[in-house]
Amino acid sequence: MTGGADGDLTLGVLGLGRVGLPVALGLAELGWTVAGADADPATAASLAAGEPLHHEPGVPELLLRHLDSGRFRVTASADAVRDSGAVFVCVPTPRREDGSTDLGQVEDVSRVIADHMDGYTLIVEKSTNPVGSAARIREALAARANGAREWDVAVNPEFLREGQAIENFLAPDRVVLGVESDRARDLLLRIYAPLFERNGSGSATADGRVLVTDSATAETIKHAANAFLATRLSFVNMLADFCESAGVDVDAVARGLGMDPRIGPEFFGAGAGFGGCFPKDLASFTHTLADHGVDPSLLEAVARINDERPDRLARTLARELGGLAGRTVAVWGLAFKPGVDDVRDAPSLRMVDCLIEHGARVRLHDPMAMDEFRKCRRAAGDAVHWAASALDAARGADAVLLLTEWPEYREVDALRLRESMATPLIVDGRNFLDREALVRAGFTCRGVGR
Ligand SMILES: NC(=O)c1ccc[n+]([C@@H]2O[C@H](COP(=O)([O-])OP(=O)(O)OC[C@H]3O[C@@H](n4cnc5c(N)ncnc54)[C@H](O)[C@@H]3O)[C@@H](O)[C@H]2O)c1
To answer: Is the same domain home to 64 and 209?
Structure first.
């Protein structure tokens, strides 16, 4: 073990993706020396050259700053493990066909750690894993490391939101530490101490944002948090369906509900549905509940409501256009939320498939996520046009369908938009656009739940 903010501790980060890179740079910003590794040679080479592969505000600047300061370096996994007193595991935990979590990459990393750790090593699970994963990793390590070395496995779930990853890491609303030994707890508190010294109570132990639990509790907190947030969204989308039928405005209903402090206004917008990590984490938690003999039907309904969103939007379009076959739909927004280039499990993927299945052509635009979307989609030939701008997407289209609330879509001139389209129809899948301005410009404007 070498180097460190307060002496002799280096931290390893395995997996430098959307979570691992902000975590590594956040730890470097706190003053630690960080050795990062990624199994993908292109990712590792690009980061070593100071070029992040994904858009994330603040990351390019911190990457250059800490490559320069020597507090962050990209190295091989074995070296990162050998040099480090604590290793943060940030590898993917994708969903299997049956909803359960594929822990293969976590297990691969555990083998590397078992083979290369040198001296006491704390393995910190940051990937989102189902309850019991830390215990499984502990067993695998015990078998492989042959009892020869000292180590602990802790769970420190990551709650950062893409698009605000650095901000969230450096000013978290909570830090959950799932530990099974005093040694692991003390080391994690030491690692996070600079965070609380710079903005808070001055000490991690005195800070109300730190919650120390056992590892299974920490794993459950992360899964339950995402399942709960997904439930809020499907609840408000169910309300939207009701409001559409009852002639009520779901946005006003959500505002009225959100004014109750027990409910709150955040994360309560009706729309095209959720994507990103939520669908896989929801599926994983649903699977885990069933494994434990707990009725998962509440969460199954949450997933079902979300899965039905694209069909509902397609029905709205078909109703307004008298069918979708032969129609051209401009899709504004492919990322699962604004400010990111991530399309993992984004509603846009299902929506575009659905439109094409119904015989429509699509003209796609996103300010950041076009490349990621292209990677995820099978070739669709003439049915897809990749547009250079929002207006280009709308050219000759029978409808604009907004799926991601990128601020620039609100700036599009309504009159120019109308002139460029074949039919003046907007379906606003996020209730985001300036509806009055669009109606004044002659558009028929349909939203969600109003
Ligand atoms: N993206 C989010 O907003 C978010 C938030 C909280 C938690 N999480 C969880 O964090 C974990 C990582 O998610 P992500 O979004 O960063 O994924 P990602 O795909 O963006 O990044 C993962 C990285 O790990 C690398 N990797 C895979 N196997 C490896 C190995 N054996 N050794 C070293 N590197 C390896 C991959 O090449 C990739 O660069 C997941 O469990 C996810 O659920 C994600």
So the answer is: yes
70 & 143 share domain: yes
Q: Mean pLDDT in runs of 10 for the chain (450 residues)?
A: 59 98 98 98 98 96 98 98 96 97 96 92 97 94 79 97 97 96 97 84 74 98 98 98 97 98 96 98 98 98 98 97 98 97 97 96 97 82 92 98 98 97 98 97 96
Stated pTM of the model: 0.95
Q: 124-170 pLDDT, tens per residue?
A: 999 999 999 999 999 988 888 766 679 999 999 999 999 999 999 99
In 92-225, where do the E strands start and end?
121-125, 151-155, 175-178, 210-213
C-alpha span between 52 and 69 (Å, rounded)? 17
Instruction: Give the Cα separation of 36 and 34 in Å (integer).
Output: 6
Q: Nearest-CA neighbor of 157 among 206, 201, 108, 93?
A: 93
CA-closest residue to ligand 1 atom 10: 127
**Domain limit, last residue, from 159, 194, 213:** 213
Per the prediction, the chain carries an average pLDDT of: 95
Please give the torsion angle defined by the CA atoms of residues 363, 366, 370 and 374, in that order, rounded to the nearest 10 degrees.
-50
Q: How far is the CA of 105 from the centre of ligand 1 (A)?
A: 9
Distance 256 CA to ligand 1 centre (A): 38
Range of the domain at 267: 222-307
The DSSP string of 30-70 is TT-EEEEE-S-HHHHHHHHTT--SS--TTHHHHHHHHHHHT
Examine the domain organization and report whether 27 and 152 are in the same domain: yes
In angstroms, rounded to a whole number, what is the distance separating the alpha carbons of residues 230 and 240? 15
Domain count of the fold of the chain: 3
Ligand 1 atom closest to residue 14's alpha carbon, by position in its atom list: 33
Which residues does a 6 A CB cutoff place in the pocket of ligand 1?
14-20, 37-40, 43, 77, 90-93, 105, 108-109, 127-128, 158, 160, 162, 277
